[in-house]
Amino acid sequence: MKIYCYSLFLIALCIGLIACSNEDNPEHPIQPDAQTNHAVIDVEEMVLIPAGEVTIGTDEKTDLTFGNEVDSQVVFVEAFYIDKYEVTNGQYAKFLSETGHRQPKFWDNPTLNAPDQPVVGVNWEDAEIYAKWAGKRLPTDVEWEKAARSIDGRIYPWGNDYDASLGNFDDGEQMNGKLDGYAMETAPVGSFEKGISPYGLHDMSGNVWEWVISVLDDSALEAHTKELTNGKIYTIRGGSWTNGAGDTRTTVFYIYPAQCSDHSSSVGFRCAKTP
């Protein structure tokens, strides 16, 4: 990714950050038919992804993203568990209570801090520490991609065609909630039953970007060596409520700028576990 791509990406994140920092308007303009019965959701539920070969990357790359996509390749992935939902504020609150860990950046923002919304304003280390506390870990890049697109190589969790009604996206760059029911905010996890992946995972496209451990080939990351911190590659996947058709593709990844890794209202995570 070229430097100007980073600049545009950071501008988009800053727009979302500024808007979400406005606590004068705590209302959540949610369309009734966009919601599910969150009282019955088990946010701790994990899904077993079986071992086997899977195609990652794509040979039909898009120009709608400022992120990266590797060339199509077949890899073998060992079996693993992954969270059915993104980690919520409710789960993170328990972690904070038991560990005294620092609060996320947007912890007091009323448009982002409901118990059933995904936690945001966390950096890679925060996510890693939470995962260890929970007896889990962060998913690898290839694990995340297999969980999102399954073995048939689909571009979105539900298929190959973008549908703005199947996740929390940017509403055609308007971010007004007209298409998905959520304006300038994250959606409660599990809000889009029709947008799940073949393995039954929610919000693998949209809502919040998700931290992963990158294990993609070095050639794909050669241009991003300046973003290495302590020998670790900070990568996010899946797109968010600030993104549209390009960045919400299951093949897209970003090497996230370390200097603002906990300043985003559009980055969260989910956990994985080795059987």
Summarize this structure as a short list of keywords or feature phrases:
single chain; 275 residues; alpha+beta; four-stranded mixed sheet; three-stranded antiparallel sheet; 5 helices; disordered N terminus
Structure description:
- With 275 residues, the protein is of the alpha+beta class.
- Helix content is 19%, strand content 12%.
- It is built from five helices and nine strands.
- It has helices at residues 3-20, 89-99, 124-133, 141-149, 218-221, and strands at residues 46-49, 52-56, 73-77, 80-83, 209-213, 234-237, 253-255, 267-268, 272-273.
- Strands 7-6-5-8 form a four-stranded mixed beta sheet, covered by helices on one side.
- It is globular, with a radius of gyration of 17 Å.
- Residues 1-39 and 223-229 have low confidence and may be disordered.
Structural topology:
Layout: H1 3-20, E1 46-49, E2 52-56, E3 73-77, E4 80-83, H2 89-99, H3 124-133, H4 141-149, E5 209-213, H5 218-221, E6 234-237, E7 253-255, E8 267-268, E9 272-273
Parallel strand pairs: 5-8
Antiparallel strand pairs: 1-4, 2-3, 4-9, 5-6, 6-7
